[in-house]
Amino acid sequence: MAVKPEHGIECLFAPRRTVLDRLLVDAARKVGAEVRHGIALSEVEYAANGRIVGVTLKDASGSRATIGTDIVIGADGRQSTVARLVNARTYVQGCNASGIVFGLSHGYQGWRMMVVIAVYGAMFGVMAHLRRSLRPGMMAHATQDAVAGVLLYFIARS
């Protein structure tokens, strides 16, 4: 798929996380990093000049440990804990139009249903954005489909 160069980005790569994570862990160990699994970042420690000098980590049992560090790398994904803790600003933000496209793809059901489904899709998109999860929208969509299916079943039987 061709990618239009934009915002200083000339190409995109999306390796499988199972491959990428292993490569990153191996490379980090090779240069002397201590790699820990099952640990979550909970706080960032700052010096008086605003520079990060340490982090507080929490394990599965809830035990916390604070360690000093010269660098913190936020490679923890789209809903980054690191970005949230350091109040990182958003450089580029897009609009999710997939809900409207989802509705338009239901044109075979007629204009009225296409508009209704586009509105539902847009609402689910907003819900996913606000909740930072697709799960509520997926549950609402499944509930709507189940209720419609049950109603259609009883209508067909009568």
SSE arrangement:
Layout: H1 17-30, E1 39-46, E2 52-59, E3 64-68, H2 81-85, H3 98-104, H4 111-131, H5 135-157
Antiparallel strand pairs: 1-2, 2-3
Helix pairs in contact: 3-4, 4-5
Biggest sheet details = 3 strands, antiparallel
Radius of gyration: 23 Å
Number of helices: 5
Spatial arrangement of strands, main beta sheet:
1-2-3
Strand content: 5-15%
Straight-line distance between termini: 51 Å
The count of strands amounts to 3
Low-confidence stretches: none
Summarize the helix and strand pattern as letters. HEEEHHHH
Mean pLDDT, rounded to whole units? Answer: 83
Question: Helix fraction?
Answer: 40-55%
Would you tell me the structural class of the helices and strands?
A: alpha+beta
Number of domains: 2
Approximate shape = elongated
Overview in brief:
By secondary structure, the protein is of the alpha+beta class. 44% of the residues lie in helices and 13% in strands. It has two domains: 69 residues, no CATH class; 60 residues, no CATH class.
Detailed description of the structure:
By secondary structure, the protein is of the alpha+beta class. The protein folds into two domains: 17-85, no CATH class; 98-157, no CATH class. The protein is 44% helix and 13% strand. The protein has helices at 17-30, 81-85, 98-104, 111-131, 135-157, and strands at residues 39-46, 52-59, 64-68. Strands 1-2-3 form a three-stranded antiparallel beta sheet. The longest helix is centred in the C-terminal third of the chain and has 23 residues, at 135-157. It is elongated and about 70 Å long. It starts with 16 loop residues before the first helix and ends with a helix.
